[in-house]
């Protein structure tokens, strides 16, 4: 749901107001189908890991409610439908990007990185960063600089968001032998990494305003939200063990939603930040 909202933000930013309603509906429906399919393929491939983790051991593929063959068929078919919808009713580039997100999530993150590298969610996070670019491309038909910034913002948001969750679930990941950063490098290293990526994210979101694609509504919102994110990351650093990880994780969800809400609002009430000078 959150990544669909980022796609919506990309569409509003590209349209500088309300985008075509049909395009919005098609992108959201196709995005839902593609992400659902990717999730199904992930659950099929990771069924052994899911069975070892308390958080996931009741997933339908694990317990046998959905057979493996059905999960694979569902994952493939939903992505085919999504591709056809976007190609026929929006444009080819948006369809290609959406398919790339699924392929990257399944082949690169799920199959190649998740079980082998502590950088699994850093690199694999690229899949979840594609939706806002899809939203932009759906309106403009081209992959422009603002779309790259939207991609980068979500890309740098993903590690502190997911590492906060992995701190809470580090024992689960350890039992499943998944090399998440807290399991391999420890809690302290993970906390420092969270703070580093949070600082990079604040810098990136501020730089986005310098492109002129967004105005003062976005700039003020992004700075306030970013400073709060740093506060939660710093508080996690200063507290013992994983105390503070859950508030940071929950705030990271709110942060991305409010940031893209600010992008949507900015598309209606855009005032250049330079007008203050």
Automatic annotation (TrEMBL):
Cellular compartment(s): Cell membrane
Pfam families reported in the protein's UniProt record: UbiA (PF01040)
Cellular component, GO annotation: plasma membrane
Key words, A-Z: Cell membrane, Heme biosynthesis, Membrane, Signal, Transferase, Transmembrane, Transmembrane helix
Molecular-function GO term, any one: protoheme IX farnesyltransferase activity
Annotated Gene3D superfamilies: UbiA prenyltransferase
Membrane topology designation: Multi-pass membrane protein
Record PROSITE patterns: UBIA
Transmembrane regions: 24-41, 61-86, 92-109, 121-141, 147-169, 194-211, 217-236, 248-269
Signal peptide start-end: 1-17
BP terms from Gene Ontology: heme biosynthetic process
Keyword Signal in annotation: yes
Pathway: Porphyrin-containing compound metabolism; heme O biosynthesis; heme O from protoheme: step 1/1
InterPro entries, per database record: Protohaem_IX_farnesylTrfase, UbiA_prenyltransferase, UbiA_prenylTrfase_CS, UbiA_sf
Family label: Belongs to the UbiA prenyltransferase family.
PANTHER family, per the entry: 4-HYDROXYBENZOATE SOLANESYLTRANSFERASE (PTHR43448:SF7), PROTOHEME IX FARNESYLTRANSFERASE, MITOCHONDRIAL (PTHR43448)
Protein name: Protoheme IX farnesyltransferase
Species of origin: Geodia barretti
């Amino acid at each position: 749901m959150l990544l669909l909202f980022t796609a919506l933000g990309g569409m509003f930013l590209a349209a500088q107001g309300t985008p075509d309603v049909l395009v919005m509906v098609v992108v959201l429906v196709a995005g839902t189908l593609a992400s659902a399919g990717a999730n199904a393929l992930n659950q099929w491939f990771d069924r052994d890991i899911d069975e070892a983790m308390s958080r996931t051991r009741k997933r339908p593929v694990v317990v046998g409610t959905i057979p493996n063959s059905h999960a694979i068929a569902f994952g493939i078919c939903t992505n085919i439908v999504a591709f056809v919808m976007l190609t026929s009713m929006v444009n080819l580039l948006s369809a290609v990007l959406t398919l790339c997100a699924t392929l990257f999530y399944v082949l690169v993150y799920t199959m190649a990185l998740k079980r082998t590298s502590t950088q699994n969610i850093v690199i694999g996070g690229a899949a979840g960063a594609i939706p806002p670019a899809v939203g932009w491309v759906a309106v403009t038909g081209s992959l422009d600089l603002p779309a790259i910034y939207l991609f980068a913002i979500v890309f740098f948001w993903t590690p502190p968001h997911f590492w906060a969750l992995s701190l809470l679930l580090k024992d689960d990941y350890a039992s499943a032998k998944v090399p998440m950063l807290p399991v391999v490098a420890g809690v302290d290293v993970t906390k420092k990494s969270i703070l580093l990526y949070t600082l990079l994210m604040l810098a990136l979101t501020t730089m986005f305003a310098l492109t002129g694609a967004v105005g003062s509504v976005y700039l003020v919102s992004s700075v306030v939200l970013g400073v709060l994110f740093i506060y939660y990351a710093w508080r996690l650093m200063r507290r013992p063990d994983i105390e503070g990880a859950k508030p940071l994780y929950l705030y990271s969800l709110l942060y991305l939603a409010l940031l893209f809400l600010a992008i949507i609002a900015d598309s209606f009430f855009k005032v250049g930040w330079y007008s203050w000078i």
